[in-house]
Write a structure and sequence with these properties.
The complex is a heterotrimer. Chain A has 16 helices and 2 strands. Chain A is mainly alpha-helical. Chain A has a two-stranded antiparallel sheet. In chain A, 43% of the residues are buried. Chain B is an all-alpha fold. Chain B is 74% helix and 1% strand. In chain B, strands 1-2 form a two-stranded antiparallel ribbon. The longest helix of chain B has 31 residues, at 2-32. The radius of gyration of chain C is 19 Å and the shape is globular. The longest helix of chain C has 21 residues, at 130-150. In chain C, 40% of the residues lie in helices and 23% in strands. Chain C has 2 domains: 1-90 and 182-267, Rossmann fold; 96-180, 3-Layer(aba) Sandwich (Rossmann fold), CATH 3.40.50. The chains are: A mainly alpha, B mainly alpha, C alpha/beta.
Chain lengths: 405, 300, 267
């Protein structure tokens, strides 16, 4: 691995990247004070960094190529973590442990931590929703955040104008989300993968720009403040109690989401989504209504974003259009891609990692978006299936040993 | 009438800039059928590089003409280098993967490059020096047209002619057309497909850099985010004209530039970007093949 | 020639024009119940285009396509029907370039074929009520039975992409069978198969016709297979029908020999 040849390759790569990043990394011109800053030390870091990374890159590349060969032979072994998860003796205690942790979390940790966890759980829910659209049905939706915005604004505005409470708006938010999913889904039915991505991106931005510019409707860029938190049977709760309450609402909603999404995945509709992802033409030729299947995917995906939006508005008590940019859609996509498209456990892990890590690695939080970009590329290149590859349900038959042709 | 003329020329300028970016989009899409989301970022990096180089040279006291020439050349070289590298890292390993994977990788690249420039430089808008001098002969018409606009039209026209020549009459152009038609076949008849794709990225990125330098100098400021919106709009233009077609990209860009200019001039400027996106949605839904594109029936 | 039942598929004057190219030029073709009909012709003659028109993937430029399902007592016009509705009417097809759902298991591939015969909706999926559970269970069992018939039962939980080539071709047939068709359109089912596999395929097609009562229309290049299983053969060249008849008639048809078999016998 460390032959002269390899070292030479890495050396050339590091020279190339030192050249490539030279103007932007090293030089900074201050046109007001008319000075040029030269930051030579950065060139050195880039050189070292890319030298090492290029070794790792080539190593991973070779592994990937070997993996492809292995697959051709038919040895498609599941990774250890996955086999453990499938083993009931491991998975049941694991679930119990997670449940206990989830229950005591807001009492053990501070309010601040509980709030972070709420945000992370909202992301788990909406990422599971996006997973239906992208992971199962294979429709790359880059405007998904629009449905999140729709849910958040639905609660804020319905509460502002009509005084509707959180509990009333939660199902309404889900319904409006689904409705928007269908409305925006209709025009894009005929579009192929990449055009679909760009049109949904367009829709997402249109909705954000409307929220930003239509002051009479949405209060423009300044947003809506003083959105009430969820009420608990009309009892006044302290801030800490409300936060815990919202936390448990999110725990409930997360469990509900996992339950529903899991059932959908292994149902007639879920199979149709996957077939659509795998081969659109064959899917139609097997008698599946493409239009209906796509629309249900859009609608059922958007439902969760709508609900997540309602909780988001209730948790932060303030919303404005800046929370719903295209990059928010990309972050949600990142959760799905990192965890493993189509895999429920994977997507949950992905969302938790993406939302929690930057919170606890504060020093690195400015590098957050840079890292997300890198994650998307690296995952696609080396592990397009994500951390946890989706597993299909298997069936046992009594007569299975009976191998007649 | 004067107002109309002003909007017309404004639209022409916009359109020409979109065209310089759209050309790269269209070339890349024509060859590997990938929406290169990072293309807008290449344009931004070109502009930034020019800003940095011209800043350094200005402080060294060089004369204006030398600065324009050197800054533009360096910007073009760097953008081309970035385009080449991006293709090698983020797209080449995914040549045989589902299209969705390459697209997600492209989005990741775009996000990465934006934040790379943001972190290495700044998030503020930086003033961009006016590189193009005012031409004396234009003075009587200064109400309508600035010399930078004239330069933009001229350069766009020249680049378009150059690219058309490259694709129609040169060896590498022929190889590009063959690769666009059928990669497998092209490699069987001895075309180095990897090289063709690399060249396409290099040429497309260089074109975007020219656009970056011109627009930054025309508008007078830039930040790390200019690439994204410009990239999306250029993509709209490329699709409008018929993706994969060089004259289509220019035509689409001009149409988009004019409609935007007249819309903001006569109707409202609040919804300028909404309008561009709406335009995109409508084209893709009703005429996905674009003005000059051919509609394809998928082979079954 | 054995006596076949009523006409179940009738295509009259079917034409398909792509730009300036006439891929199909006024083709007439019919299939009777219980028949195995072959559609042959050189590469690019328009055979797959013909399939694509019947199954609703292409909208033909002109011509009529009618079916009369054996279990129903009426004619149904296929023109303008979407592909999934054509399948629902009882026409199922396979693809020349295998188009399985690669990342689904073999059983799931077959279960997808059953999709249009099932009724569970979103509520059924979420609440998994008795009717849904029953339906799922039934489809799983029926699909397994089909796999047994086609000889793929040992692969039931494998991913489709991991199957050997010949098994993938057969899975295409199994998947199409699951849609419960009265006529099966096979697009080059023997392509890429070795002699032994082709012989097995011959038996399989015979079995499908005999046991299931499904009529078959197939496109095939393997002349030995075509001559041995077909009741009637249609020959197309450059989008035009140049001959039709029993295998014996086709073998001695001068036009066919000139256009098609001539090349074969030289080889």
């Amino acid at each position: 691995m460390f032959s002269i040849e390899e070292v030479k390759k890495s050396f050339l790569v590091s020279i190339w990247f030192m050249f490539l990043t030279f103007p932007i990394m090293v030089i900074r011109v201050n046109t007001i004070y008319k000075i040029v800053e030269w930051r030579w030390e950065r060139m050195f870091y880039i050189g070292i960094g890319t030298f090492v990374i290029s070794f790792i890159w080539r190593y991973l590349m070779r592994r990937k190529e070997m993996g492809v060969k292995k697959k051709e032979v038919g040895e498609d072994a599941l990774p250890l973590a996955q086999r453990l998860l499938q083993n009931r003796r491991v998975s049941y205690p694991a679930i119990a442990l997670v449940a206990v942790l989830a229950l005591i979390y807001p009492f053990v940790f501070s309010l601040y931590q509980a709030n972070i966890m709420i945000t992370a759980l909202i992301y788990v829910v909406i990422a599971l929703g996006l997973n239906i659209v992208v992971g199962l049905a294979g429709l790359l939706d880059l405007g998904y955040v629009a449905f999140y915005a729709v849910g958040a604004y639905a609660y804020a505005l319905l509460n502002y104008h009509f005084g509707l409470s959180f509990w009333v708006v939660l199902p309404i938010g889900a319904a409006i989300g689904a409705l928007f999913g269908i409305i925006l889904g209709f025009p894009v039915l005929r579009l192929r993968g990449d055009y679909l991505a760009i049109v949904t991106l367009g829709f997402g931005e249109i909705i954000r720009l409307i929220l930003e510019n239509w002051n009479e409707f949405s209060f423009g860029p300044s947003g809506i403040a003083n959105i009430p938190r969820p009420s608990f049977f009309g009892i006044d709760l302290s801030l800490a109690e409300t936060t815990r309450f919202v936390y448990f609402i999110m725990i409930g909603l997360t469990i509900f989401t996992i339950f529903v999404v899991n059932r959908l995945e292994n149902s007639r509709i879920g199979r149709a989504w996957i077939a659509l992802r795998e081969d659109e033409v064959a899917c139609q030729a097997m008698g599946i209504d493409k239009t209906k299947t796509k629309l249900t995917a859009f609608a059922l995906g958007a439902t969760w974003a709508g609900m997540g939006g309602v909780v988001f508005a209730a948790q932060t008590t303030f919303i404005n259009p800046a929370s719903f940019t295209i990059w928010e859609s990309v972050i949600i996509l990142c959760c799905v891609v990192l965890g493993g498209m189509g895999s429920i456990i994977g997507v949950i892990l992905g969302a938790l990692v993406i939302k929690l890590l930057p919170e606890y690695l504060r020093e690195f939080s400015q590098y957050r978006m840079l890292l997300f970009g890198a994650i998307l590329v690296i995952m696609m290149v080396f592990r397009p299936g994500g951390i946890i590859t989706s597993v299909r349900r298997t069936y046992q038959f009594k007569g299975k040993s009976n191998r007649h042709a | 009438m004067e107002y109309f003329l002003e909007l017309f020329l404004g639209g022409l300028t916009r359109g020409s800039i979109y065209a310089l970016i759209a050309l790269g989009y269209t070339m890349v899409y024509g060859i590997i059928e990938l929406i290169n989301f990072a293309h807008g970022e290449i344009y931004m990096i070109g502009a930034f590089t020019a800003l940095i180089v011209s800043g350094v040279l200005t402080l060294l006291g060089w004369n204006a003409l030398a600065i324009i020439v050197i800054a533009s050349i360096v910007a073009v070289i760097y953008s081309a280098a970035y385009g080449y590298t991006i293709e090698k890292i983020a797209y080449k390993p995914l040549r045989n993967a589902p299209r969705l994977s390459a697209l997600i990788s492209a989005i990741g690249m775009s996000l990465f490059l934006q934040n790379y420039v943001l972190l290495a430089q700044t998030s503020d808008f930086l003033p961009f020096p006016e590189l193009i001098p005012e031409f004396g002969f234009l003075e009587p018409y200064s109400n309508f047209i600035r010399s930078s606009e004239l330069v933009i039209f001229a350069v766009t026209a020249a680049v378009m002619l150059g690219l058309t020549f490259l694709i129609k009459f040169t060896r590498i152009g022929k190889a590009m057309r063959a690769t666009a038609q059928d990669k497998m076949m092209a490699s069987l008849v001895g075309i180095d497909v990897n090289r063709v794709i690399s060249v396409t990225f290099i040429v497309g990125s260089a074109t975007a850099a020219i656009g970056g330098v011109l627009i930054a100098s025309h508008i007078g400021q830039l930040n790390y985010y200019i690439g994204f919106i410009a990239g999306i709009k250029a993509f709209v233009a490329a699709v409008l004209g018929g993706i994969g077609s060089i004259p289509g990209a220019v035509l689409g860009s001009l149409v988009l530039g004019w409609t935007e200019s007249f819309f903001t001039g006569y109707v409202s400027s609040d919804y300028e970007d909404v309008f561009a996106f709406l335009f995109l949605v409508l084209i893709l839904i009703f005429r996905p093949a674009g003005i000059l594109g051919r509609s394809e029936t998928e082979k079954v | 020639m054995p006596d076949f039942g009523k006409q179940i598929l009738a295509v009259n004057g079917l034409s398909m024009v792509f730009g300036g190219l006439r891929a199909l030029d006024r083709i007439d073709l019919d299939v009777r119940q219980g028949e195995v009909v072959a559609l042959i012709g050189p590469n690019g003659a328009g055979k797959t285009t013909f399939f694509n028109c019947i199954t609703g993937l292409y909208a033909p430029t002109e011509g009529d396509m009618l079916i009369s399902p054996p279990r129903k007592d009426k004619n149904i016009r296929l023109n303008g029907l979407k592909p999934n509705l054509v399948t629902e009417q009882g026409l199922a097809r396979t693809f020349q370039n295998i188009r399985l759902f690669q990342n689904m298991t073999v059983l799931e591939n077959v279960m997808i074929g059953r999709h249009c015969r099932m009724s569970a909706g979103i509520a059924g999926a979420i609440f998994r009520n008795r009717a849904t559970r029953h339906e799922e269970q039934q489809v799983v069992e029926e699909s397994y039975v089909i796999l047994q018939k086609i000889g793929l039962a040992q692969y039931v939980n494998d991913f489709a992409k991991n199957l050997p080539y010949g098994a993938q071709r057969r899975l295409e047939i199994a998947r199409a069978m699951a849609t419960d068709p009265f006529i099966l359109l096979l697009d080059e089912p023997a392509a890429g198969m070795n002699t032994r596999e082709t012989e097995e395929l011959d038996d399989l097609i015979e079995k499908i016709r005999e046991m299931e009562g499904i009529s078959i229309l197939l496109i095939e290049h393997d002349m030995k297979l075509v001559m041995s299983i077909s009741d009637r053969i249609f020959v197309v060249d450059y989008g035009k029908k140049i001959a039709e008849g029993t295998p014996e008639e086709i073998k001695s048809d001068p036009a066919v020999i000139k256009a098609y078999l001539g090349e074969e016998s030289d080889a």
